[in-house]
Amino acid sequence: MKTKNIMIVGVGGQGSLLASKLLGKLLLTKGYDIKVSEVHGMSQRGGSVVTYVRFGDKVYSPVIDKGEADYIVSFELLEAARYTEFLKPGGKIVTNTQQINPMPVITGAAEYPADLVKKMQAAGIDVDAFDALKLAEEAGSSKAVNIVLMGHLSKNFDFTMEEWMQAIESSVPAKFLELNKKAFMLGRDA
Amino acid sequence: MKTLMLGNEAVARGLFEAGCDFVSSYPGTPSTEITEAVAKYPEVYAEWAPNEKVAMEAAFGACLSGKRSFCGMKHVGLNVAADPLFTIAYTGVNAGMVIGVADDAGMHSSQNEQDSRHYARAAKVPMLEPSDSAEALAFAKLAYEISEEFDTPVFIKMCTRVAHSQSIVETGERVEVRKTYEKDPQKYIMMPGNAKRRHPIVEERTQKLIAWGETAPVNRIEEGEDHAFGIITSSTSYQYVKEVCGDKYPVLKLGMIWPLADGLLTKFAASVEKVIVVEELDSFIETRCHELGLNVAGKDIFPCIDEFSQNLVADKLGVYAPVCGAKLDDVIPARPPVMCAGCPHRGLYYTLAKNKVTAMGDIGCYTLGAVPPLAALDTTICMGASISGLHGFTKAGGGKAVAVIGDSTFMHSGVTGLINAAYNESNSTIIIVDNSITGMTGHQQNPTTGFNLKGDPCTKIDLETLCRAVGIRRVRVVDPYDLAQCDAALKEELAADEPSVIISRRPCALLKYVKHNKPLEVDPDKCKSCKMCMKIGCPAISMVDGKAVVDNTLCTGCGVCAQLCKFDALKAPQEV
Q1: Binary contact (A84, B161; C-beta < 8 A)
Q2: Taking the C-alpha atoms of A27, A28, A30 and A32 in order, what is their torsion angle to the nearest 10 degrees?
């Protein structure tokens, strides 16, 4: 199988590491070769963060480059717009519509661009945008945005529900399991 | 068992399986997880040392006693440990000793982009360089075999993309290795007479290692169909080359990066029409090829700045032209890292900015005080440089200035600077921002926190007592959430005609035990849109339709913004 590329982008502290952990667990049980590249350190302090998940028969590079992503999963709208160049032809962006102002916008040095979903669509990009924060809160915690997004992404793959649920079980603490399962289903049904 | 592991976790697994008994490190991105992961194995003693020099010396002592040892650090940490390194290279080891060093090409979380491979060559210490997690595990084990066979410390060199990428590893069983210590002054006491006898042994050792590397499986030639060119590479660059070229061109994949197997380089070069060296950062392999008289290309094609990627390698090798996805016309604002909402450093930095003092900064989360709107710092060089730099600045008549240094950084290398300030009677005001943890690298314990790496209670170094003991008479503690207190303390200490220390003390707001207050609320009728609350650069506050708005998912209720509001518009919920 040709290597598949999933980029997970967001704002440091939003929980993208859990999303990549879940994907890694799932893909390992499916027998793929896998590479998951993360960012630690300074960027985690509210900066723009990127995680690369690659799987296939044999994966060499740990990173995804411009023009290569089959999917970009974005925790925040501006971050989806930041990485559009990484999509491959026919690739798809799955994004939360939540907006978090970066410091240059907060201080007035820059503006948060308006109508980003429309602009991405106008540029010919396949965008699947929805309010993952609302669904996470419905599931019981705003922190479950990561699992809501994974639920929504899951519609694009033919892994079984059982396989996804097993991956969730091995990635989250037992006391948050029901909340996360609910978050996943809300995202999948959205 | 097959499992997915970070490169750093795989190094830790390799240390465990090799029977490593003693680990001493100082945290630093991207090396930190090696030591955090190895500490989870109950068989291994692991500790955070105050700095990398101490860690390396401790690891040497442990290997001397007969146990396999390890010390880990980031590239700039190796500068701190360079002193023992160059002499441990002479003494050699008893049980094996491995040094982990992680470079940060692209400077994701570092102040420079130095290439640690030069240290291997300069100190005459062998260096292994894995290209994924499976190799990280295998090379950590191999490093101990080399260490004991050739009587030398051995580097395992990581980079961000190998350290922080997960890939599949196969785990094995632990072996136990025990040696006994025997007194051997000629080997271990490096006074000139003995060192003179050791140096030729070191040079012979390098020659033996070169011979070993010629046939050792750690270096391998991967055949290719097209001999128009061959590629010499290692580490993550190898992965990019294979991603781009597959099995088309022959590749010499180097696992031992120092000493280089001269014969293998020569043999490979003779087998292809043209040789291209693909290596991140400096010319290192390429330089050795030139010394051997080999005609190779390298840095004339590839940059010595920033990390590589498959598109860059494809472009430079002329294999294919990458096709990028669509780009929006809008300018996408940057999202730089910021100090967190509720960060205790914020109130202190506001005070410094308001008083317009020159501030010598240091290395940690608090370096983010340099970012607008606070823009409260003037310099950042290396660990500890704030205090010693301030001393020079004030002695030379630079004017009112302070040093800002974190608790962990102060323990690392601030203490000696403080001793200098006391001894040479500096008119310096040193601010220790004590958030009771090593923050930037992800909450590691340090000598001031009262807990060790394993999380057990331990001796807590008292900062006030330490500062007084080195001769500072003026030592005071402030709460950085209290702006009036910070302002008064700063003004008084700057006015004092002697060195002084202000400890700005409050635990990091991200620590699990720190209780947050309820998020503040804005009374829109009272908000006069003056934007005073925006001056502290808190990510929880923004202006919406001309009025301040608090993001209640981020706000910790620290109340620093409320102290700036002249109209009482920002309040804790019960007061509104």
Answers
A1: no
A2: 80
Rounded CA separation B229/B273 (Å): 5
Contact between chains at B324 and A124 (C-beta distance less than 8 A): no
Query: Facing residues of B252 across strands?
Result: B221, B232
Nearest C-alpha neighbor of B441 from the set B128, B193, B151, B72: B72
Cβ-nearest to A81 among B236, B309, B332:
B332
Model pLDDT for residues B426-452, shown as the tens digit of each residue: 999 999 999 999 998 989 999 999 999
Give the chain B residue nearest A48 (alpha carbons): B335
Q: Are strands B127-128 and A87-96 parallel, antiparallel or unpaired?
A: unpaired
Please state, in angstroms and as integers, the Cα–Cα distance from residue B384 to each residue in B56, B363, B409, following that order. Answer: 19, 8, 6
User: Which of these, B353, B109, B378, lies nearest to A47 by C-alpha position?
Assistant: B109
Closest by CA to A40, choosing from B29, B511, B443, B10, is B29
Yes or no: say if B132 and B187 are a contact pair by the CB < 8 Å rule.
no
Fold match between domain B220-317 and domain B521-575: no
Pairing of strands B296-297, B275-278: parallel
d(CA B296, CA B260): 15
pTM listed for this prediction: 0.97
- How far apart CA A117 and CA B374 sit, in angstroms, is 33
Cα A183 to the center of its chain, rounded Å = 14
Cis amide bond preceding B480, omega within 30:
no
Measured CA distances, B106 to B28, B181, B407 (Å):
15, 43, 27
CA atoms within 13 A on the CB side of A151: 26
Q: Looking at residues B163-167, what average pLDDT do you find?
A: 97
Best of A61, A98, A99, A107 to mutate (most B CBs within 10 Å, chain B): A61
Taking a C-beta distance cutoff of 8 angstroms, is the pair B265, B288 a contact?
yes
ipTM of the complex: 0.96
Average pLDDT, chain B: 96
Please tell me which of the candidates B4, B29, B330 has its beta carbon nearest to residue A34: B4
Please report where in the chains the tokens 């060499």 appear, as a residue.
A60
Q: Which of A38, A46, A69 sits opposite B338 (nearest CB)?
A: A46
**Strand spans (E) along chain A:** 4-11, 33-37, 48-56, 69-74, 87-96, 126-130
SS3 B354: helix
CB of B107 within 8 Å of a chain A CB? The answer is no
Q: How far apart are CA B46 and CA B39, in angstroms?
A: 5
B544 and chain A in contact, CB less than 8 A: no
**Is residue A131 helix, strand or coil?**
coil
B521-575 CATH fold: Alpha-Beta Plaits (3.30.70)
Fold of B2-213: Rossmann fold (3.40.50)
- Nearest residue of A to residue B373, measured between CA atoms: A107
Are A54 and A5 a contacting pair, CB within 8 Å? yes
Sorting pLDDT into bands at 50, 70 and 90, what band is B574? confident
* Fold (CATH) for B220-317: Rossmann fold (3.40.50)
Report residue B447 as tokens: 């000598």
Residue B140 gets which letter from DSSP? H
* Distance, CA of B261 to CA of B478 (rounded, Å): 58
- Identify the CATH class of B345-505: alpha beta
Domain range for A10 is 4-189
Q: Which of helix, strand or coil describes residue A69?
A: strand
Interface mutation target, options B76, B108, B166, chain A, most CBs of A under 10 Å: B166
Residue B345 CA to residue B208 CA, distance in Å, equals 53
- Nearest chain A CA: its distance from B32 CA (Å): 10
